[in-house]
Structures are given as structure tokens and as C-alpha cells.
Amino acid sequence: MIYGRSLFHIVASLIIFHLSGATKKGTEKQTTSETQKSVQCGTWTKHAEGGIFTSPNYPSKYPPDRECIYIIEAAPRQCIELYFDEKYSIEPSWECKFDHIEVRDGPFGFSPIIGRFCGQQNPPVIKSSGRFLWIKFFADGELESMGFSARYNFTPDPDFKDLGVLKPLPACEFEMGGPEGIVESVQIMKEGKASASEAVDCKWYIRAPPRSKIYLRFLDYEMQNSNECKRNFVAVYDGSSSVGDLKAKFCSTVANDVMLRTGLGVIRMWADEGSRNSRFQMLFTSFQEPPCEGNTFFCHSNMCINNTLVCNGLQNCVYPWDENHCKEKRKASLLDQLTNTSGTVIGVTSCIVIILIIISVIVQIKRLVKNMSKGNRTLTRQFSRRCLNLPIMSYALSEGQELQLTLQMWQRTLKTTTNCGDPLPSAFTTTTVGPTCPVRRAAAVTSAQEMLLS
Ligand SMILES: [Ca+2]
Ligand SMILES: [Ca+2]
């Protein structure tokens, strides 16, 4: 860290400190409170290879009571070099307690600090270890100076120098919206955005309906090179895809759910050529704040979600209020419908139901007679969709018949069992089941068919 460089500066700052100690202390306390809004200020010119930014009014005096944040972002596999112009002056003080520039190695105000600078001597060249630098300029309520001008360049990250000249990354963006949806890494391959061997830097833009915000819940997450953030990560932005709106970045073994403040969420996935097995699956739910309107459901946690998301098999609320007591809710809604419907409609519906029951009974009798005449045995298996609390489903099959389960149904069952960590029904698991859904799906379908045909 660099503080005042010369004895003169230290003495000067000590004098200033003692002369204005009480006022300065008060000012610092006030201006560093979290309630003060930090804004970008001064000028900032950006171009493909770097940029230049300055303190407000530079090279004239900066104004008092300012806090400016500058977050520089380089592309994956690039670093940042930051140079301060020699025409530089920031009010000197002991440990740069008053006006200062603070530089951090990362995208956040809590990233590791590189240095805090003030005085007359411009800071040395600063190099980032990754692709972000977080820079704060702070001016307190009195004694202003010229300020600073800083220039930065993007340079190749030395961690990747063995790879030589890198190929440009494929364009990879997705647009999504509505009351809910699933953002998942498999979309990259499904929609042909990149080949399996290419590095990817993909963005999903999620736009919630007007006056809505977004809640993001991870259904699946695994980084192939966990804790190697330069090689793979999943990032969440809140409001835009600019680095200032970066809300969370995941590259370790766990990822947390994220509540956004805005109705525009951006999910970004970076995976280099050797990390393409990294994967994630995220459920987004659009919600409004209470009081809940007529067509919404109250989640008990400051969320009103669309009624269509209640009992749809996916947990949209922070706690699973939308998927609790679904049997009772269905009964209640049926009763509501009946009471709200006119007698004529009830009559017509009853007739149709009776006719359908008669037809179904006839079909069942015919099938029974046919089976008895062939002397076939009937196998009945039960499939319990435990996580969903849905009714148990039974399938009656004759010998030689294959079980017709749609892939969609399996995906839904598997997705739910994966979510809540509940194993598959024992009849569909083998001891060699792998950790990924496709393997489980294959094993489950195969064993189901084998069992029913044996
Ligand atoms: Ca000052
Ligand atoms: Ca739901």
C-alpha cells in the first residue's frame, strides 16, 4: 500500500488532521455510511483495448463530498493494467483517511485491496490478477485538490499464455421472459450456439413483466474446474449486463439462490475449452411485491407469484408454499368451480361424465375378457412421485406390452427427485447409477422396460 510519500506530506497531513480533526471525523463518518449513493463521476472514455477516466472537473479541483466508483471489466482471459497521469494531486492525510483513491483486485467493494492512495505523487502502475478492477475515489467535505486521470489497457492474462492466440468466442445470447422459466447450460448445445469443444461466454437476458422482479433458484450446478474462476463461472447481474450491476458470481462447489431488485436479470456462463462439462440449471420466477393482486398467489415472503405457478410441480416461492397441500387446493378449486357454474352446465357436464364412464366400463370389460381368454398375467407397477405429493400412478400392462412413458414425464420425475435429493424409486435405480440426469434417465427407462417385460 502507498500512503503519503514524503516527510513533508506526512507532516502536512498531520497538521491538517489536527487542525480539522473533529470536523473531518464527522464528515468521514457521514460520507462512508452505506446510505450514501455512489455514482460514477468525472469523465470516462471506453474503447475496445482500454479507456481513460478522471476525477470530477479534472484537471480543475474536484468538488467536496463525492464518492465515485469505477469498475473496469476485461474480457475472459484478459487482465488490466492501470496507469495514473503524473498531473495528480489528492488531499494528503495520514493513512489517506480523508480524500483518497482505493483500488481493489476484483469486481466488488469487498474484493482484495491493492492500495489506498492520496498526496502529490501519482500511484505506480497497477496490474489486476483477473479481469476486474474496482476503483473508488472519495472526497470529504473540505480541502479539495486537482484529482487524477487514469488510463488502462487490457493485456493477455499470463495464466493462459500457453494457449497462444485464442480463437474469438462464438456469439451466445438468449432472451427469456414470462411468469417462470428454466435457464440451463444445455441450451447452448441445443440451440447450436457453440460446438462441444469451444470456449463459451453466454448471456441469458430474463425480462419480467412490468412492475415485477425476479427470483432465481438453482436446480442444478456443477463447475468442472471448481474454484478456478478464470476457467469457469456462473454470474448473475441485476438490472443490466454491465459490471456495476454484477450481483453474484459462482465458481466454487456451491451456488446460492438470488433475489433480484429489478425486472431484468442477466445470467452469464463462462467455460473454457477444458470446462465444457460445467453445467447449471436455474429456475426464474417473476414476482410482485405485496399486496398481492387477484390473479397472484402470496408466497409468505414478500412475493406474489402468478396463480398458474401454484401446484405446477416446481417450487417457485423461496419456501415451497406454492407446492404444499396441492390435493386440498385442487379439491377446493373444483368445489369453487362447481358452485360458480349454472345448473345447466352442471347437468350437461354430468351427462357427459356418465357417458364417458359407461364407455370406459365397456372398454375395460372388453379388455378383461380378452386378457382372460389369452391367459396373460397382468403386471402392475406403482410409481410414486414422492417429491411432488401427486397421487400415486398405476400402470396395468399385459405381457408383451411395453410401458409407454413419455420422456417429459421422466424428466419431470427426475428433475424433482434431483431437486429435493430424494432417490429414485428403488425399482428404477441400479447400483451403477451415475451422478448426472441423462445417465439416471437411461438407467431408469431401461430397468423399467426390463422389469415389465420379464
Ligand atoms: Ca478533501
Ligand atoms: Ca410452483
In percent, how much strand structure appears in the residues? 25-35%
Bound molecules: calcium ion
CATH architecture of the largest domain: Sandwich
How would a textbook summarize the main sheet?
6 strands, antiparallel
User: What general outline do the C-alpha atoms trace?
Assistant: elongated
Q: Mind telling me the CATH class of the largest domain?
A: Mainly Beta
Structural class by sheet pairing and helices: alpha+beta
Distance between the termini: 74 Å
Tally of discrete structural domains: 3
CATH superfamily of the largest domain: Spermadhesin, CUB domain
Number of helices: 7
- Give helix % range: 10-25%
Mean pLDDT: 78
- Along the chain, the helix and strand elements come as HHEEEEEEEEEEEHEEEEEEEEEHHEEHH
Q: Under CATH, the topology of the largest domain is which?
A: Jelly Rolls
State Rg: 31 Å
Number-wise, the strands total 22
Stretches where pLDDT is under 50 for at least 5 consecutive residues are 1-23, 25-37, 375-454
Summarize the structure.
It is built from seven helices and 22 strands.
Give a written overview of the molecule.
The protein is 24% helix and 29% strand. With 454 residues, it is α+β, with helices and mostly antiparallel strands. It folds into three domains: 39-163, Jelly Rolls (Sandwich), CATH 2.60.120.290; 173-287, Sandwich (Jelly Rolls), CATH 2.60.120.290; 367-453, no CATH class. The strands form five sheets. Strands 11, 13, 16, 18, 19 and 20 form a six-stranded antiparallel sheet that branches. The protein starts with 6 loop residues before the first helix and ends with a helix. Residues 1-23, 25-37 and 375-454 have low confidence and may be disordered. Bound molecules: calcium ion (2 copies). InterPro entries: CUB_dom, LDL_receptor-like_sf, LDLR_class-A_CS, LDrepeatLR_classA_rpt, Sperma_CUB_dom_sf.
